[in-house]
User: What shape does this take?
Amino acid sequence: MIPFNKPYLTGKEMHYMYQAVYSGKISGNGVYTQKCQKYFQNRYGIKKALLTTSCTDALEMCALLIDIKPGDEVIVPSYTFVSTALAFARQGAKIVFADSREDHPGMDEKTLEELITPRTKAIVPVHYAGIACDMDKVMALAKRYNLIVVEDAAQAIEANYKGRPLGSIGHLAAFSFHETKNVISGEGGLLAINDDRFIDRSEIIWEKGTNRAEFFRGEVNKYEWIDTGSSFLPSEITAAFLWAQLENLEDIQAKRKAIWNTYHSKLQSWANHNDIKQPQIPSYAGNNAHMYYLCFESLLQRQRVIEQLKDLDIQAVSHYLSLHDSKYYRSKNYEIDRTFPMSDRYTDCLLRLPLYYELSKEDQQRIIEALKSIRLQPVSSNGMDKKVTADSNA
Assistant: This one.
């Protein structure tokens, strides 16, 4: 079986984890934590970076930092992972969903202004597949209406907007190091603070609402409970694992980009012939090769492709279920006077192909040939699949 994902180990993870264990400091905020945080600050121009146990935790820290309260509204894309919305919903915010773009699953920036009300507190653009949202438009709206921008950069390490690293543009940002990401620590995340207003408080929230970090730096004689917060920082063992990955970031990225480019070029003629949409990258965005996806014409067509690839021992998977149609959100009985046609389309039609560092050229070619061999169902004008009468593949 060719899996959808396979975590990559550089070979140094166990060595650094061993060093962390025998350093006598394994509870967090030790040498490796600080090395990882400085790496992000120096490489991406982030003012302050804090490792967290997950991207979800980083987003929850954002909600605390911007003081989300019941009744506040936060704009997020519907086509995203639940954490993007959950972090703010937990603080009592009403989540206001934006539809996706026609050319890309990211939020449709031109629809955002109509979603803003006097209760809007923040906009959370998600850089889906590591492809940037139009941050000039988002930041201009935030400035006009005095809003906070939290970049969900879970998939966006090494990606950029007009040459600027993603995660360094919004007031705050969150990264993920889940095992499906470009660089990993099993579970893990990072909070990026780009606005001076949030720097001092971020470390207090990170350390359970105390000034413990200041105490260990010798800046205060004792530490105490001074704010809200939680245990957001990961163990030093997790940071040591991550450091081995960051040391090899450029090699990892080069391999992932080669795989992405091979998919894109070798599937282009077949995709065009069958009206299957390949990823489109706006001129302002870079590509960090986080994922390679295809967008089919219908839910049924995609499901048949998944099943036939599975029969050939290839695991390809769908992605998010639109949050506006989730059981939890519907239970809130919010009045929604809008539809989300593009988000619904990506829910039904988007398929992700295997992409990981150790995917061999032979296995990738096998995936490509398998896709081309599948007899796709043509779609009728009413959106229902027709009966196949001929091989529609190039």
Remarks:
- The two ends are 25 Å apart (CA to CA).
- DSSP finds 14 helices and eleven strands in the chain.
- Residues 386-394 have pLDDT under 50 and may be disordered.
